[in-house]
Amino acid sequence: MAAKLLNDPSDVVQEALEGLVLLQPGLNLLEDRTTVIRADRRAAGPDDPAVPVAIITGGGAGHDPADAGFVAGGMLTAAVVGGIFSSPGADAVYQAIRAVTGAAGCLLVVKNYTGDRLNFQLGAELAVADGYRVELLLVADDVALTQSDDNAGRRGLAGTVLVEKIAGALAEEGRSLDEVAALARLVAGRVGTVNTGLSAPTVPGVPTASFELRDDEVELGLGIHGEPGVRKIRATDADKLIHIMVSRIATERGIRAGARVVALVGGAGATPPIELAIATRAVVRELELRRIEVVRLYCGEVMTSLDMAGVSVTLLALDPEEPAVLAALDAPTGALAWPGHGVDAAPSLARVAAPLPDAGVPEDLGHPDARVRAAIDVACQAVLDSETELTHLDQQVGDGDLGQALARGAYGWFDDPIEGDASHLLRHLSWIARRDVGGTSGALYAMGLLRAAESLERGGDWGEALAAAVDGVAGLGAAAPGDGTMLDALAPAATAWADGPAAVVDAARRGAEATVGAVARRGRASYLGERAVGYPDPGAIAVVRWLEAVVTAQPTAV
C-alpha cells in the first residue's frame, strides 16, 4: 500500500476539518464535534429572528470537499461530518441544527444513504420537539440504480452539490424556508448523476482497497462509499465511457433534443485534472450530438471517495420558466471549493488564429532532392518503430515522454510532406520539431536541424552540416559529450564522418553505450544522479536508431 500523509488513522477526520477551517475564512468547529459551521450564523435559539434560513448537510467523511468544504456564504450554513464513509450520529445533527437555526428554520439536505437518512431524520425530530422549524430533503440523483424494492433506493451523489448551491443562494437572499425547500426539491427531482470508478479507494488504516478491479475494467454506477458499482465494464476510451454515462442520465431523466442543461463533471479523488478536462470535453461533445444545449458547465473535485480514480457526470435539466435556478447557480459564494467561480455563461470553444506563419516552407524550395527526402522518411519511420523502446528507457531515467514526443515529430513529417533541396527539407523538419515535438527534445532537434541547414546553404558538405548540428545542440543545451545526453551519440558520429557510414553508426552506438555507466550531468537523468546509472540515455539511443536506419536503407544517401 502506498504511503499516506496521515498521523493516527483515528484522528483523520478531526485533523482534516481543522485544516479546512484554517483555510476557509469564516468557519468554526463545534466544540467536541466534527461539525463545521459559519461563524456569522450562530443562532440564539428557535425564535432568533436575526439569522436567515440555514442550509445544513452532512454524511461520512472522505468525500472532500463535500460536505464541509462548501460551508460558506452563499452555500451551506453547517456540515455534520461522521467517520470515514460513516454517517454522523443523530445527536450531532441535532446539535448542528441548534447551533445555526433561528426563527426562519432550516433545510436539511441529505444524501439518500440509509445511515444518513435515519440519523438526520432522528436529529430533525429532536429539533422539532424543541420548537425548531425543519424541512428535510433527500437527494437521490444516482440514476445508475433503478427504483425498486431490491435496493435501499437511489443514492445521493455529486448532484447534491448543485442542490446545496441553489438552496444556499436562495437562503442568502433572505427567501423563506418554504421557497428555499420548494426550489431545492424541484432541482433534486431533476438532477441525475452516474459515477464511474477507475480504481478502488483505500480507507485510512485499512491495508487493502475497498474492492478489486483489473486493469482492463472499470466500475460503472458506483456510490461514494467505496462500494462496488452496479456492474463492471471493459475499460474503454474517454469518449465511449462518457457516452455510456450521459446516455443513462438522459434516458432516466428524460433529457431530449432541445433541452437546456447544467453539466457538472466531478473527480473521484485521484483523477488527474488533465483527464477531467478530457472528460469535460467529451460530455459537451456528447450533448452537442444529442442537440442538447449546455447552459452552464462545471468541472472539479466536488464529491470524492478518498483516493479513488474515477469520474462522475451530473446533468440538471432547466425549465425556461424557472430562471431562479440559473440565477442561484450564478450567485456568488465564499466557498473556495465551488467549481463555478467566474462561470456565468454557457461554455464556448472559441479558436483564434495564432500569430505565426501558417507554414514553415519558403516559396523557393530549390531543386528537389529525392535521396535526402527518402533518408528523412527512413529516419522518421525508425523513430516510430522505436517509440515503445524509447518510452520504456525514458521511464527509467526521466518522465517517459521521449518516445511519444519524437513520434509526434515523425507523424508531423509524414502528414505534411514537401519536396525541395536538402537545406529546405531540413528547415522544414526543424519547423516540425518546433511545432509538434515540444519539450527539451523538440528545441534541441529544431536547433540542430536549423544549424545543419544553414551549413548546407553556406556550401558545406554533410560532415560539416552534422558538426554544425552538434554545435547548435551543445550551445542551446549547455551540454557536452559525456554529460549523458543525445550529444553522447551525435558528437562521436560527427567526428567519425570521414571514416564512412559504418564508422558513423559504430561511433554513435559506442557513445550511447558509454552513458550506461556514467552519472548524467545534463538532461532529465541528471536529476536522478547515481539512480540513473545502469540505463542508457534515451536521447542518445534515439540518435542511434535513426542513424542505423538511414545507413542500412541508404548507405550512400548523404
Written description of the protein model:
It holds the Pfam family Dak2. One of its GO terms (molecular function) is ATP binding. Residues 370-552 form the DhaL domain. This is DAK2 domain-containing protein. By secondary structure, the chain is of the alpha/beta class. The chain has helices at residues 12-23, 90-100, 114-129, 159-173, 177-190, 238-253, 273-289, 323-330, 370-385, 387-397, 402-415, 422-437, 439-457, 462-477, 487-495, 501-514, 538-553, and strands at 27-29, 35-38, 54-61, 78-84, 106-111, 134-139, 192-197, 217-220, 231-234, 260-267, 293-300, 310-318. The strands form two sheets. It has a six-stranded mixed sheet, with helices on both faces. It starts with 11 loop residues before the first helix and ends in a 5-residue tail after the last helix.
Beta-strand level of the residues, as a percent range?
A: 5-15%
Instruction: Detail the poorly predicted runs.
Output: 525-532
Query: CATH first level of the largest domain: which class?
Result: Mainly Alpha
Fold-level CATH name of the largest domain: Serine Threonine Protein Phosphatase 5, Tetratricopeptide repeat
Instruction: Tell me the count of domains.
Output: 3
- The CATH architecture term of the largest domain is Alpha Horseshoe
InterPro entries: DhaK_dom, DhaL_dom, DhaL_dom_sf, Dihydroxyacetone_Kinase
Domain DhaL: 370-552
Keywords: ATP-binding, Kinase, Nucleotide-binding, Transferase
GO molecular function: ATP binding; glycerone kinase activity
Question: What tags apply to this protein structure?
Answer:
558 residues; alpha/beta; Rossmann fold; Hypothetical Protein Tm841, Chain: A,domain 3; Serine Threonine Protein Phosphatase 5, Tetratricopeptide repeat; 3 domains; 6-stranded mixed β-sheet; 17 helices; elongated; transferase; ATP binding; ATP-binding; DhaL_dom; DhaK_dom
